[in-house]
Specification:
Elements lengths: L6 H12 L4 H12 L12 H4 L5 H9 L9 E5 L5 H10 L2 E6 L2 H14 L5 E5 L12 E7 L8 H11 E14 L23 H10 L3 E7 L1 H18 L7 H4 L3 H13 L3 E9 L1
Parallel strand pairs: 1-2, 1-4, 2-3, 4-5
Antiparallel strand pairs: 5-7, 6-7
Length: about 280
């Protein structure tokens, strides 16, 4: 589209940002150090690393529990990472989940971890783009997007594609970092090494693009205050106990401290913050 960066180049850059060698081996080593079974872990043992967003599993449950997910729902997790949200939905609610992600290393790890947890029969992970979802029209009851929109430049194209795959009455649950003041965070941050593939947008952009795609906003909650409290808790715990053996540093690698520190500072200063939005088709 005129005025926008080449989609294939941006998506390749995003995938490269998240690619990580021997990720599964590092997770197994962390599980072993934490005293968990590294070959057949309980899904809960993975939560510190496989819920790659502010608030972790607590924030996931806060977004999803009010949606009354049942085993009959068909769920699509967009930007599924190493599969944490998909496994949580499968285990907690009994639903079947398809997860898609740009990063082959994440998808490979998600498949392996689901098999290790005994949830491979309820979860499926594929390498795919949010602009071209690999599911049929009107075949999804619930789509989720958790800390992924910051890597998606064309929000309208995203919402249009979600509207295509959602069944009538289907819902789209979003939990993303969004711009609050117009001032970017310092880079790198967990979702981007530089501003080149960071696409922070305002809540109004999400609302406008959703409405244009035919989706109705049915829930909105600003989670900035929650994020500030969460970061204070994480920092205090790290000061007291050090870095845990299983955590997001296994994904973020050598720059974990810098990436995390930059997003914490930007959140504390009010430049960015997470928001929940739920739309209905």
């Amino acid at each position: 589209m005129p005025g926008q960066t080449d989609v294939s180049a941006v998506e390749a850059s995003v995938a490269d940002h998240y690619s990580s060698n021997a990720l599964l081996d590092r997770i197994k080593a962390g599980l072993r150090e934490a005293g968990a079974d590294p070959e057949h872990p309980d899904p809960n043992a993975l939560k510190p690393v496989d819920e790659f967003h502010v608030g972790g599993i607590e924030a996931t449950e806060a977004l999803l529990d009010p949606l009354e997910i049942t085993p009959r729902l068909r769920v699509l997790d967009i930007g599924s990472g190493i599969g944490g949200t998909g496994r949580h939905i499968a285990k907690r609610y009994g639903a079947q989940v398809i997860g898609i992600d740009l990063t082959p290393a994440f998808v490979e790890t998600a498949i392996a971890l689901s098999a290790m947890c005994g949830l491979d029969g309820q979860t499926e992970y594929r390498v795919a783009s949010a602009y071209d979802l690999p599911v049929a029209d009107h075949s999804v009851d619930l789509a989720t997007l958790i800390h992924v929109g910051m890597n998606i430049e064309d929000k309208y194209r995203l919402f249009r594609e979600v509207a295509r795959v959602l069944a009538p009455g289907g819902r789209f649950a979003v939990f993303d970092f969004m711009a609050r003041t117009g001032e970017d965070p310092d880079y790198p941050v967990p979702w981007a090494s530089s501003a080149d593939h960071s696409f922070l947008d305002t809540p109004e952009t999400y609302r406008r693009c959703a409405a244009r795609a035919g989706l109705d906003l049915i829930h909105e909650r600003d989670r900035h205050g929650y994020a500030v409290s969460f970061f204070h808790h994480v920092i205090a715990a790290a000061d007291k106990h050090g870095t845990p053996p299983v955590g997001l540093h296994l994904i973020m690698g050598d720059e974990a401290e810098t990436r995390y520190g930059n997003v914490v500072r930007a959140t504390m200063e009010g430049r960015v913050g997470p928001l929940e939005l739920v739309f209905r088709n």
